[in-house]
Amino acid sequence: MNTGKGSGPQGNIGFVDADPFLTTSTRKAVTTKASHAQSAQPAHAQSAQPAKPRSGFLFHCQSLTMLIFVPWLLFVVCACAVGLTLYIMPAAGMLVVGLCLIFSGVFFYLGKVKKLSIYLYIGILGFIGVLCGCSLGFAVDGAYFSQYFSLVTKRTYTNLLATQLAASHSDAGLIGFAESARITQAKVVGRYEGGTNYCVAPIQDVSKGVSAQFWAAGFNCCLQRSSFRCDDALSRSSSAGLVILKSNSSGYDGFRRAAQQAAAVYGLTTLPKDPVFVRWVEDPFLARYNLLRDGFAYIIFFAVVYLICIGMVASVLHVSTRNNEAAHKRTAHFHSHA
Fold first, then answer.
1. Is 34 left (phi over 0), alpha (psi -120 to 50) or beta?
2. Is residue 188 situated within a structural domain?
3. What is the pTM of this model?
4. Helix (H) or strand (E) run with residue 60 in it
5. Does 182 fall in a domain?
6. Is residue 86 within a helix (H) or strand (E), and if so which, with residue range?
7. Which domain holds residue 301?
8. Which of 92, 199, 274, 283 sits in a 20 to 30 Å window from 212, CA-based?
9. Tell me: the pLDDT tens digits for 271-291?
10. Is the residue at 251 inside a domain?
């Protein structure tokens, strides 16, 4: 029967001290050996206290902040990368998106391997943020940024007569018309397609009102046969145009069908195959800059909306994670006392 105080080194030392038949030198040797064996044990074997899990208000604030802002930053970065580079340098935008996906994948992997719910949620929300950011980037590019960068790279014409051929100016980005060029309000057509009113009016010379090479155009800004009021059409000081590009988002095909209808209604025989449509404005340079400004405003607006949404989702996930951890602790405590 074991009469010592324990089976480890401390128990051996107690047993040696209690043995009356050992000599002093033998007792000292055994005690020294037991002490060395105790010091050689790993640190985790010496301490019976388990490591305390990280907790507290500061820790929960940090984890919630990461859960919100990491996916949100991925959303904003992807939206800007796709929107700003798709026209001028698409490979750079795709590279940024790829890096964001890898970044999200790292969090997802760490969450799986280390069984950390927060990292797992950050990875999943990061993937969603990249997807939503790319979608927003494509939308902003089509509506604003592609038009802006395309207009910047195209030519600017000044003092252009309305009687000149549109085919000779297909490379135009900004057009300053001669003083004799005016919008003909008597030849307006508003054509409805898919819930949108495509409004066009020919830009003609006041003394030669037979040419229809150039057209002012806009969305939902006229009646069926009159009242063309798109952009600065009602201003007497405006005589310039911001060219509408041939793209799906610009509405060029809809404007061309409306111009063909106007040519048939008003007997315009000089309509070219590809007319030049413009937004009739006072300051074309300011109108071009507004495309860039409106694109960024669009991103900022949806970034704020996404931040609110991701904040609510992250809060719910964080609370559910804390509740699950508390439930596991209660289960482990119950089994340890069973």
1. alpha
2. yes
3. 0.73
4. helix 57-85
5. yes
6. none
7. 58-152+291-336
8. 283
9. 898 999 999 999 999 999 999
10. yes
